[in-house]
Design the sequence.
């Protein structure tokens, strides 16, 4: 079974530039997550999708971050404009629908390491 | 305030010994708690999930306990091996039925041969 795919793996941009990350979840997984992981910290949830609807985006800095999940499959996360403090690894994860007794186990992609200079 | 605490210092143990990692939380009432393993440059990998009505869960050399009174989970690796060296993350749900997962900062484990 193919895992969660993410691209690019690495990205270096200057502050105030824009960047976009792409994620392809495991086939059949209804729930998709985007996390930000700063060095030395645990992953912090930015946004959670159930199919193509947003379940939680309470920690997404909406003035600069946006995310979409078209047709309930692939997802993109965008930052515009980037700040120095956005330097982090951006992880995408997917899971089966956790509602109704489904699985809470999350499968993570390899992440995109973003460096903002 | 709500928080999850894991040992910030790395844990160094000798091969063959049992590693015990701690996860404490405050002001959450999670329905379940998970443990993940993360290697450098990689995404976390799911290991075990334990529910609030379970005291203990085992999987091969791994054992997890969950004490909702103490608000603590212990993660044990028996007969540890150098290949077990990694960062181990504790994760729990907020307990509000929203299925939002909160991760701890993780504990780095080093197993020496």
Sequence:
């Amino acid at each position: 079974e193919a895992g969660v795919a993410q691209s690019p793996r690495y990205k270096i941009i200057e502050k105030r530039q824009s960047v976009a990350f792409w994620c392809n979840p495991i086939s059949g997984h209804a729930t998709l997550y985007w996390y930000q992981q700063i060095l030395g910290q645990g992953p912090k949830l930015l946004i959670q999708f159930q199919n193509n609807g947003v379940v939680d985006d309470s920690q997404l800095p909406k003035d600069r971050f946006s995310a979409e999940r078209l047709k309930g499959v692939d997802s993109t996360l965008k930052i515009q404009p980037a700040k120095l403090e956005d330097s982090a690894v951006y992880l995408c994860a997917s899971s089966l629908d956790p509602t109704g007794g489904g699985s809470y186990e999350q499968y993570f992609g390899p992440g995109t390491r973003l460096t903002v200079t | 305030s709500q928080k999850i605490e894991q040992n910030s210092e790395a844990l160094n143990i000798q091969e063959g010994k049992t590693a015990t990692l701690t996860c404490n939380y405050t002001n959450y009432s999670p329905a379940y708690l998970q443990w993940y393993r993360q290697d450098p440059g990689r995404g976390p990998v799911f290991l075990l999930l334990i529910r609030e009505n379970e005291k203990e869960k085992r999987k091969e050399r791994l054992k997890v306990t969950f004490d909702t009174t103490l608000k603590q989970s212990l993660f044990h690796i028996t007969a540890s091996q150098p290949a077990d060296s990694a960062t181990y993350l504790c994760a729990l749900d907020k307990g509000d039925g929203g299925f939002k997962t909160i991760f701890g900062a993780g504990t780095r484990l080093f197993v020496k041969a």
Observations:
- The mean pLDDT of chain B is 92.
- The domain at 3-112 of chain B is CATH 2.60.40.10 (Immunoglobulin-like).
